[in-house]
Specification:
The protein is mainly alpha-helical. 44% of the residues lie in helices and 5% in strands.
């Protein structure tokens, strides 16, 4: 059971995939980190030694991950809401921010539709 950046990485996965469980590390970032520390991405996480894990941890310290990144993103969203720009208003109303249509295909962001009381006459 490996722990990197306060995240427990799953044992049965390849290292390249297991690193993506850390918030802020996607597949390309994971590949770049493993290339720098010279570890094969197809090795399983349970077979990696502590020395290699320490090298991965040291390389991840150069990236903004987990709590710091979450704080950074939420601060950016709060700033947009405070200055009342268009994107900030869309965030506050929980609507799509980047120009997507909302008449249809916005169920993920808007949520399940609810009936309006007193509309029928």
């Amino acid at each position: 059971m490996a722990r990197i950046a306060w995240v427990v990485l799953p044992n049965g996965k390849h290292v390249e995939i297991a690193l993506t469980y850390i918030y802020g590390i996607w597949k390309t970032t994971s590949k770049a980190i493993l290339e720098k520390v010279k570890i094969d991405g197809t090795t399983k996480i349970e077979t990696i030694s502590e020395v290699d894990l320490d090298r991965i941890r040291d390389e991840i310290k150069n990236h903004m991950v987990e709590g710091d990144l979450r704080r950074f993103v939420s601060g950016n969203i709060k700033r947009l809401q405070e200055i009342r720009c268009y994107r900030g208003i869309r965030h506050a109303k929980r609507l799509p921010v980047r120009g997507q249509r909302t008449k249809t295909n916005a169920k993920t962001r808007k949520g399940k539709s609810t009936a309006v009381a007193g509309k029928k006459k």
